[in-house]
Automatic annotation (TrEMBL):
<dbReference type="GO" id="GO:0046872">
    <property type="term" value="F:metal ion binding"/>
</dbReference>
<feature type="binding site">
    <location>
        <position position="198"/>
    </location>
    <ligand>
        <name>S-adenosyl-L-methionine</name>
    </ligand>
</feature>
<feature type="binding site">
    <location>
        <position position="199"/>
    </location>
    <ligand>
        <name>Mg(2+)</name>
    </ligand>
</feature>
<dbReference type="GO" id="GO:0120537">
    <property type="term" value="F:3-demethylubiquinone 3-O-methyltransferase activity"/>
</dbReference>
<feature type="binding site">
    <location>
        <position position="155"/>
    </location>
    <ligand>
        <name>S-adenosyl-L-methionine</name>
    </ligand>
</feature>
<keyword id="KW-0460">Magnesium</keyword>
<feature type="binding site">
    <location>
        <position position="202"/>
    </location>
    <ligand>
        <name>Mg(2+)</name>
    </ligand>
</feature>
<comment type="function">
    <text>O-methyltransferase required for two non-consecutive steps during ubiquinone biosynthesis. Catalyzes the 2 O-methylation of 3,4-dihydroxy-5-(all-trans-polyprenyl)benzoic acid into 4-hydroxy-3-methoxy-5-(all-trans-polyprenyl)benzoic acid. Also catalyzes the last step of ubiquinone biosynthesis by mediating methylation of 3-demethylubiquinone into ubiquinone. Also able to mediate the methylation of 3-demethylubiquinol into ubiquinol.</text>
</comment>
<dbReference type="GO" id="GO:0061542">
    <property type="term" value="F:3-demethylubiquinol 3-O-methyltransferase activity"/>
</dbReference>
<keyword id="KW-0496">Mitochondrion</keyword>
<keyword id="KW-0808">Transferase</keyword>
<dbReference type="InterPro" id="IPR029063">
    <property type="entry name" value="SAM-dependent_MTases_sf"/>
</dbReference>
<keyword id="KW-0831">Ubiquinone biosynthesis</keyword>
<keyword id="KW-0489">Methyltransferase</keyword>
<dbReference type="GO" id="GO:0032259">
    <property type="term" value="P:methylation"/>
</dbReference>
<feature type="binding site">
    <location>
        <position position="203"/>
    </location>
    <ligand>
        <name>Mg(2+)</name>
    </ligand>
</feature>
<keyword id="KW-0479">Metal-binding</keyword>
Amino acid sequence: MWRSRVVSVSGALHRHLARNSVRFHSLKAASSLDGSAGTSSDELSHFKSLAPSWWDTEGSQRLLHQMNLMRMDFIQRNLRALETVEDADTFIPGYNYQEFLPKSVSKIVNQEWDQKVSDLLKKKQLSVLDVGCGGGILSESMARLPFVKHVRGIDLTEDCILIAQVHASSDPSLNGKLDYKVESLDKVHGKFDIVGCFEMLEHVSRPDIILEHCWNRLNQDGVLFLSTINRGFVSWFTTIFVAENVLGIVPRGTHQLKKFIKAQEVVEWFNKKHAKEFKILDLKGTMFVPMNGWVEHDCTSVGNYIMAIQKLH
Ligand SMILES: C[S@@+](CC[C@H](N)C(=O)[O-])C[C@H]1O[C@@H](n2cnc3c(N)ncnc32)[C@H](O)[C@@H]1O
């Protein structure tokens, strides 16, 4: 029964997708455009209703809590890869030393190298803007990193910001490292080393405006991290049909297929608006594997994805 229903829905879906094939409008002066980027009041009241259970790791946001482990790994891996160890007193040969050297030796080489990268990063003391921070799952994790000086989390849902503030206040180590504000992106001043926009673009009707504002808030060499969902049948099937309607592990009404954005559209938008000013550091497909959590994979055009884009000189 499920199968025939899915097949008949699939035809309608393809027609729907064809009608909504372009998510990015032509963007002239994005910096003067409203940073709410067309987020509807329905979207915001949906997140308001979820705010009280935001930090329940078995509650409405459990998939975000699980996803957070994967995205923190992704962020740290990409930031670490940008560091160059110049004063290495450990010589790392160009061949695959892990296979060539005895395990005990290559393990020590790795540890020393990792420590040098950690020291370099720690000296940087980076500033972070978390756009659409919700109840602060990612903002808190970022603020705990030793190489992060300060995180600002902004969101348009007041109740989410309240929950974020209350939750952060229970950890004294976050004192002075994290602040939250109900604020639209176009009202944010200053520049940041890292801008994060996680699971948020698929909730606005003008993702291009959000991207432009995020880009304008980045320091040179800074990195924009984002994660969102490809528009397509697989995303509808997994994220809306299965997760929301069948299993109920994501609250019903959280997602709308027409608001999903293909990874390729994000890349094309950067090519069009900021050609030669950016470098895609990393792009990975991501998926939830029951009993295992969120994992990365190489198919970036289907389902969820995560991306790191560096602002060049
Ligand atoms: C699915 S939640 C993601 C929360 C958080 N980024 C995370 O991944 O843990 C989406 C959040 O985006 C916020 N949001 C939607 N449109 C926004 C906008 N234009 N500006 C700021 N926040 C927005 C919502 O209020 C909601 O808290």
